[in-house]
Write a structure and sequence with these properties.
This protein is of the alpha+beta class. It has 7 domains: 70-222, GAF domain (Beta-Lactamase), CATH 3.30.450.40; 241-387, GAF domain (Beta-Lactamase); 408-545, Beta-Lactamase, CATH 3.30.450.40; 572-725, 2-Layer Sandwich (Beta-Lactamase); 745-887, GAF domain (Beta-Lactamase, 2-Layer Sandwich), CATH 3.30.450; 905-992, PAS domain (Beta-Lactamase); 1073-1225, 2-Layer Sandwich (Heat Shock Protein 90). It is built from 33 helices and 41 strands. Strands 1, 2, 3, 4, 5, 6 and 7 form a 7-stranded antiparallel β-sheet that branches. A hairpin with a 2-residue loop joins strand 6 and strand 7.
Length: 1234
């Protein structure tokens, strides 16, 4: 370069030499000087250039080595950009890829000051329409530099984003295509990018292009394989998944995720509009509504029939402001849409969108288009399957319809089945079937599906609506805009339908009706739908024809069945009510009616409902009240035996208005009235047959009605005979049952109640009353039914009317309507309460049995006889009950007497079984009456009470065991005999004489004992006295003193016995005197112990446990000493083997207790309650201890203690000794007494 510059300078110098020679010399000198300076500067520049070249070569080597090591696009780009930034000292470098078609550039990687720039990957540049340095480099395929980018319009976004001052742009070229552009910019100062700099940049770019192309090719191949794999997966699922909707949704989800989209959907163009059939949106992203929302990109793709990809919605030139606003509202930043095409025009679009601006690569578009192809194939397959399914459904529906025609013969069922099937087949919201009435010129609804069931039966003129058009043209008509003929819609139920088809049902050359379907959802019916409906209409015509034929056959069969039914009624023995029910049913079945009622005359001539068949509630309510004999032409015709036919019931003036209104409410349109004559009630009855469909009555119908009238008369005659016979038998049976009931009842009041109940039930009356004569008046003793509460207890004269007539005449009185007479109502409260019919019969004993009815009633002869029989049974039952009451009263009196006598009374029957066992017997024997009744005395007492034949009459002594105790009874016996003299029972009377025997025994024992006790001392006294009186023996003083001592001691002993006897006598007479004083029991006990110790013969020890302080009791000292001596003497006596006798005294509260305990033989438990009795000694005391006694000691001790205000008790266990305790009142402190 410096050479070039030197050459240029030389040329300039030579040029100056030609101008002037002088100047050339000067110039030569100057040139030599200047040349020398230039050579010096050129040398320096050359050295710098050599150094710079070396750096560039190093940079190239480094970048080559780095690119060789890097296997991904981002790594190549990062190495290239970092090397450029380092080599040229720039602040910002970036790599931008150019699309395959060269129309768009997308930012890939940007670096500023050694760091990644986050926003650069989002940069999208429209190369063809947007001015930019990158676009220029891509279009021109040449690098260039801009010194001041701030003044240049080609890099406005770069300046705005980075604040760039100067910039250079170098394309990466492979083959003849620019694949990328490198941008380098200084952001601090302006700088000049020389041609050498650009050359170096181009060289680096060329070096990187190979690596990028290689890496991108590898990645592109991998992406293509992955894309093909994804497309194959989606296609396989779409073709194999049974649930097409779920498979389509999964396909758009897979496609959306693979494209990095946040929303993906398939939108199809259908006859009813555009619809989103499948969509996917990631969490947080709202779905696309299926409401025909304007989607501009999808609409463009559908209109242009090619893929439309918008990388930045906000800056897209393909979208108008309205479209941009619509996409912005959906949160769309970039969107791509491709047509879904299958052998023709597009079916719809497959659209994917992102929430941020981003370019759609060739691979993205290829994937979207490939998925669209798979979706189109799947949709096409689905359409074919649906079409085949629809065709199969049509054939199946037609087959089912044919089955309906051949299988169903009832017209309503046939038409309803056809309506249901055609609605399902044509996917209709509703369907209906109307029958054509040619005579009236109307269409009547016969069946509906999806409409209000109340529409059935609705009629409208046959020339209105789509139905009228179809009938006139004789073919199926489709109304795409059903609402446009709203003035023709015959009923509000059809409002809101958008599409409908109506087809006429034709047979031969006539129209039988129309069949229609409708939709409310703007889905247009096709010609094929119209054909299907016509086919259904043809089947419906055939079904209608078959049903009418069957209906005629059915009617004929029904008439025959009616004859048979009537004949069966005539041949059966039924009750009147059952016959009338059967007549109503037979009339309805024979004449084909919907309902029937049998109205028969009552007692007053009114017609009442007596039989019914399928009567609606409105008709039942109409006939709930009696119908007056002058109730219109229908009743008059029945009285004269004429039939009335009313085919237009609602408009027939002959029929009462109430009948017509009730029939209208019940949906009944025709009436046939057939007169009925009853042998019992005479003329005036009728059978009313109602029809729910319009009916023209033929001669056959009227003839059948006449036959019905004749048949009913015979049936009623037979039933009345049968009912009379059965009634008589029933009355007899009920009378027998009533007799049995009354015979078992013995309470007069209960009998009266039972009689009124049975009488009312026997005659099916509404009330009943029994009156008995008391003091010349009739008194109501029992009543039931209407007015019973006010009647019971009322009185009336026995000579008054009605009941008085029965009493006086002794014969029945029967009145059909007694309540109509005010005078009779005043006399009889039952009539005043609302009853009117009266039947009274005499009751034995002067009473009256009367029954009542609330309506006038003719009393039949058999009813009067039955009530007479019941009255006779009641009279007998009352007599029995009164007799039983008297007997029961006597029995109660006898039982009371037996219960309150002291002797036991036992009665036995013929078999010897106890039938009476009074309370005294229970007490004496210890056996409860419940245990004795029904058993023999021998089983109860283990002893026979009957006397032997040889036993003389009178009382006998018999012993029995009462538990472990022997009891002696004084028994007397009375024998009862029947009229034949056979023993029919016995009565035993007995009393307990065990106590008397015991007293006698004790007295005998006492006399014996006292005699022995008195004889012993008297013998001693007498013996010693006789000895002293002997003259043949001389006794000394000592001997005399000894003899006299014995006489004195025996006399004292005799005195004690006499004193004891006197004490007993005083105790018995209450003359025992005690002197209560302040007595220290210690002194008394000590004296008694000392006295007993002196006379004790056995080895006894006495333990006295007395307190140290005085223990004062309120007692008689002498009497207390006597008691203590008795107790101590017994303790010693009944302890023959010796032992210890313990005596104790202590204060207990307000009493003083003395205790005497020994270790003797003890007292048996059975004797402990007896030992304080007079003359009582232990049952085996003598045997156990061999000692005697009077049996008075303890009796005297208790008497003395009781006299002193105390009490004595004993506790003992046999073999372990006895303990006697005495409680005496505590003496008052000295100075407080008195």
């Amino acid at each position: 370069m410096w050479t070039t510059e030197l050459h240029s300078a030389g040329l300039l110098g030579l040029a100056g030499a030609w101008e002037s020679l002088a100047g050339s010399l000067a110039a030569l000198i100057v040139g030599l000087a200047v040349g020398t300076g230039f050579r010096l500067r050129a040398a320096r520049r050359h050295a710098a250039a050599m150094a710079e070249g070396e750096r560039e070569r190093d940079s190239m080597r480094r970048i080559a080595a780095e690119l060789a090591r890097t296997s991904d696009v981002e790594g190549v780009a990062r190495a290239l950009l970092d090397e450029i930034a380092a080599l040229f000292g720039v602040d910002f470098v970036a790599l931008t890829f150019v699309s395959d078609d060269g129309a768009e550039a997308s930012g890939f990687l940007g670096r500023q000051n050694g760091e990644d720039v986050d926003w650069w990957p989002t940069v999208r540049i429209d190369i063809e329409h947007e001015p930019s340095g990158i676009g220029t480099a891509a279009r021109e395929a040449i690098g260039f530099a801009v010194y001041d980018v701030g003044d240049s319009r080609v890099s406005a976004r770069l300046v705005q984003a980075t604040g760039a001052k100067s910039a250079a742009y170098v394309p990466l070229i492979t083959g003849e295509r620019v694949i990328a552009v490198i941008s380098a910019a200084s952001t601090v100062d302006h700088r000049v990018f020389s041609s050498d700099d650009l050359t170096v940049l181009q060289a680096l770019a060329s070096e990187a292009t190979i690596a990028l192309e290689r890496t991108r090719s590898t990645l592109a191949l991998g992406e293509a394989l992955e894309r093909e794999r994804l497309v194959m997966s989606i296609g396989r699922r779409l073709r194999t998944e049974l649930d097409a909707a779920e498979a389509l949704r999964a396909a758009v989800e897979q496609a959306g995720r693979a494209l990095g989209a946040n929303r993906c959907f398939v939108r199809l163009t259908q006859a009813s509009g555009v619809h989103v059939v499948a969509q996917w949106a990631e969490a947080g992203t709202g779905p696309i509504l299926d409401d025909g929302t304007h989607l501009p990109v999808s609409d463009l793709a559908l209109r242009w029939e090619r893929t439309v990809a918008v990388g930045d919605v906000e800056h897209s030139s393909d979208l108008d402001p309205q479209g941009i606003s619509a996409l912005r509202a959906l949160g769309v930043g970039s969107v791509a849409s491709t047509p879904v095409r299958a052998d023709g025009s597009p079916l719809g679009v497959l659209t994917a969108s992102r929430s941020h601006p981003s370019a759609w690569t060739h691979g993205d578009v290829a994937l979207l288009e490939a998925v669209a192809v798979e979706v189109a194939l799947a949709l096409r397959l689905g359409f074919l399957i649906d079409e085949n399914r629809e065709r199969l459904g049509e054939r199946s529906a037609l087959l089912r319809a044919a089955e309906v025609v051949s299988g169903e013969l009832e017209l309503p069922a046939v038409l309803q089945r056809l309506a249901d099937e055609v609605a399902a087949l044509l996917q209709a919201d509703a369907s209906d079937c109307y029958l054509y009435d040619r005579e009236r010129g109307v269409l009547r609804c016969a069946a509906v599906h999806g409409l209000d069931p109340s529409l059935v039966g609705f009629e409208f003129p046959a020339d209105r609506g789509l139905s009228g058009l179809a009938i006139r043209e004789g073919r199926a008509l489709t109304a795409t805009e059903y609402g446009s003929v709203a003035d023709e819609i015959p009923h509000p139920a059809y409002a809101g339908f958008t599409d409908a088809i109506v087809a006429p049902m034709r047979w031969s050359d006539g129209v039988r009706g129309v069949l229609g379907v409708g939709r409310r959802r703007n889905e247009v019916y096709t010609a094929r739908d119209s054909d299907v409906l016509e086919a259904f209409a043809a089947l419906a015509s055939l079904a209608l024809r078959n049903a009418e034929t069957f209906s005629r056959s059915t009617r004929q069969a029904r008439v025959q069945r009616g004859f048979y039914r009537i004949a069966a009624v005539l041949g059966e023995s039924l009750t009147r009510a059952e016959t009338l029910e059967a007549v109503a049913q037979a009339a309805s079945e024979a004449l084909g009616g919907a309902a029937a009622a049998a109205l028969m005359p009552a007692a007053g001539g009114e017609l009442v409902l007596s039989g019914a068949h399928n009567l609606p509630d409105a008709i039942v309510e109409l006939f709930s009240e009696p119908i007056s004999p002058d109730g219109g032409a229908v009743v008059r015709a029945a009285l004269h035996g004429r039939v009335i036919a009313a085919p237009m019931l609602g408009q027939d003036e002959r029929i009462p208005q109430a009948w017509r209104d009730a029939a209208t409410r019940a949906g009944l349109s025709c009436l046939l009235s057939v007169p009925v004559v009853s042998p019992r009630d005479g003329a005036g009855g009728l059978v009313a047959i109602f029809f729910d469909e319009p009916r023209t009555f033929t001669e056959d119908d009227l003839e059948l009605a006449q036959h019905l009238a004749r048949a009913v008369r015979g049936a009623l005659e037979r039933s009345e005979l049968y009912e009379a016979e059965r009634g008589a038998r029933s009355l007899a049976q009920q009378l027998a049952r009533t007799g049995r009931l009354l015979s078992r009842e013995l309470d007069p009041e209960a009998i009266l109640d039972e009689v009124v109940a049975q009488a009312q039930d026997l005659l099916h009356a509404d009330g009943c009353a029994i009156r008995t004569v008391e003091s010349g008046e009739l008194v109501v003793g029992a009543a039931s039914g209407v007015g019973a509460g006010e009647t019971i207890g009322s009185r009336s004269s026995a000579e008054a009317w009605l009941s008085g007539d029965v009493v006086q005449s002794r014969s029945p009185v029967a009145l059909e309507d007694a309540g109509a007479d005010a005078r009779l109502r005043e006399l009889d409260p039952m009539l005043a309460a609302g009853n009117t019919g009266f039947l009274g019969v005499p009751l034995g004993g002067g009473g009256v049995l009367a029954v009542y009815s609330t309506r006038p009633r003719v009393w039949r002869e058999e009813e009067i006889d039955a009530l007479l029989a019941l009255a006779a049974s009641a009279a007998g039952a009352l007599a029995n009950a009164e007799l039983y009451q008297r007997v029961a009263l006597e029995r109660e009196r006898s039982v009371a007497i037996l219960a309150n006598i002291a002797d036991g009374i036992v009665a036995v029957d013929r078999e010897g079984t106890v039938v009476l066992w009074n309370e005294a017997a229970e007490k004496i024997t210890g056996v409860e009456a419940a245990d004795a009744l029904g058993r023999t005395p021998a089983e109860v007492l283990q002893r026979n009470l009957e006397s032997e034949l040889s036993t003389p009459p009178g009382d006998r002594l018999v012993s029995i065991m009462r538990g472990r105790e022997e009891v002696w009874l004084s028994v007397s016996e009375a024998v009862m005999r029947d009229p034949l003299g056979v023993v029919s029972g016995r009565i035993f009377a007995f009393r307990d004489i065990s106590a008397d025997r015991l007293v006698e025994q004790m007295k005998s024992d006492f006399v014996s004992t006292v005699s022995h006790e008195l004889r012993t001392p008297l013998t001693s006294i007498y013996g010693f006295a006789e000895t002293l009186l002997r003259q043949d023996v001389l006794f000394g003083d000592a001997e005399r003193t000894t003899f006299l001592g014995y006489i004195a001691s025996e006399s004292q002993r005799l005195t004690q016995i006499v004193d004891a006897l006197l004490n007993v006598a005083r105790l018995d007479t209450g003359d025992l005197q005690v002197h209560l004083t302040h007595t220290d029991v210690r002194e008394v006990v000590g004296e008694a112990v000392e006295s007993v110790q002196l006379g004790a013969l056995n080895d006894h020890s006495f333990v006295v446990e007395l307190p140290d302080e005085p223990v004062a009791a309120s007692a008689d000292p002498q009497k207390l000493l006597q008691v203590c001596s008795i107790l101590l003497d017994n303790a010693v006596r009944y302890s023959p083997a010796g032992g210890t006798v313990r005596i104790g005294a202590e204060r207990k509260g307000e009493t003083v207790e003395l205790v005497f305990a020994d270790d003797g033989i003890g007292i048996p438990l059975s004797d402990q309650e007896q030992i304080f009795r007079k003359f009582y000694r232990g049952t085996d005391a003598d045997a156990r201890i061999g000692t005697g006694g009077t049996g008075l000691g303890l009796f005297i001790a208790r008497g003395l203690v009781t006299a002193m205000g105390g009490k004595i008790s004993v506790t003992s266990r046999e073999g372990e000794g006895s303990t006697f305790a005495i409680e005496l009142p505590l003496a008052a402190p000295v100075g407080t007494a008195g």
